[in-house]
Amino acid sequence: MPAILIVDDDAIDLESASRCLGVIENLDISYAHDGCAALEWIQKRRPDLVLTDLRMPGMSGLELVGTIRREYPSIPVILMTSQGSEQIAVKALKAGAASYVPKADLRPELAETVRQVLDLAAANEMKKPFSCA
To answer: What pTM, to 2 d.p., does this model score?
Structure first.
């Protein structure tokens, strides 16, 4: 069962993202309200995917993406924001995000984007060489 961590400081947006993912069966969804809480959660239990807002107090979503890419490179991150623009999408991808979804497009795009990123991550995991060391 894939574990998803949704990170957003707005409870309504957390619920909205969770409802959009409800069409995917057998997801274990957890929540964090900011980047620091997300990193603490990731240290304890590594999710299969992180879905994060861009604008949050303390640590921005782009900073969270960068930290996860450095410390947990196998965990894909999808950035979501209400400030949708091509410039933000490019910044997100350059920071290491696996994908980007504007909040205005969550309902039609989020579930399929999450499926694609999880499938790609699983395929990459199967390609890793076996090691006894």
So the answer is: 0.88
